[in-house]
């Protein structure tokens, strides 16, 4: 059976949701992740909650293609975070039929971050959406162990951890750490590959994360060992920005290469 794949918005971040959905359907993706909140000053977000026309066009694209929405992003848990301010975002996520919300740790006070994540999960639960906390090596939740500790401290079974294979490899996360996590706490994976070196500067971490990754099987991350420790049916989203290819050939070429190489990689695992 062919494993369904989701297209993460960062892979084709210059495409507005309707166009992204059409591209994903044409290539063969089953779903998409939509970036509704801008992350950096140099990359766009698409606030469907503030743009009724774009929201209607996005819903039409979903209906016309049959594509689903895996997740919406990107919620920064900062010291000033107020869950109620995200209600329009949650309303749109529910209308889109999304399953998960990607959240990110940007609060130096882990106790406050945990409380805010728990409060946000209570609110998002009323919209049928489950938060997943993503860890990043340049934050104070730098690895899988730290993310699991925060999520466990919320005492809310609906909150999971988003494991991105790039961040897993470039942090102090260990393969054995995956074995200690309840499977329901790992609701989805961002799958990509990259070169591997002994250490990285923060600039190198950020550049790879936001601009240049590789399709599965084209780098040196031990993806087989990571996936071997997870449920065989865990949803996989391809988050593989490749700016050089995007600039030369366009985002659809990036999405197509990512899809084809992931299919090849996963078919090799199935044999």
Describe it for me?
By secondary structure, the chain is of the alpha/beta class. The chain has one domain (5-270): TIM Barrel. The chain contains 11 helices and 8 strands. The chain has helices at residues 17-27, 52-65, 87-96, 110-125, 144-154, 165-170, 175-179, 202-210, 223-228, 243-249, 251-270, and strands at residues 5-8, 31-35, 68-77, 100-105, 130-134, 160-164, 188-191, 236-238. The chain has an 8-stranded parallel β-barrel, surrounded by 4 helices. Helix 4 (110-125) packs across helix 5 (144-154) and helix 10 packs across helix 11 (251-270). The radius of gyration is 17 Å and the shape is globular. The mean pLDDT is 97.
Topology:
Elements: E1 5-8, H1 17-27, E2 31-35, H2 52-65, E3 68-77, H3 87-96, E4 100-105, H4 110-125, E5 130-134, H5 144-154, E6 160-164, H6 165-170, H7 175-179, E7 188-191, H8 202-210, H9 223-228, E8 236-238, H10 243-249, H11 251-270
Parallel strand pairs: 1-2, 1-8, 2-3, 3-4, 4-5, 5-6, 6-7, 7-8
In short:
The chain has 271 residues and is of the alpha/beta class. It has eleven helices and eight strands. The chain has a single domain (5-270), classed as Divalent-metal-dependent TIM barrel enzymes (TIM Barrel, Alpha-Beta Barrel).
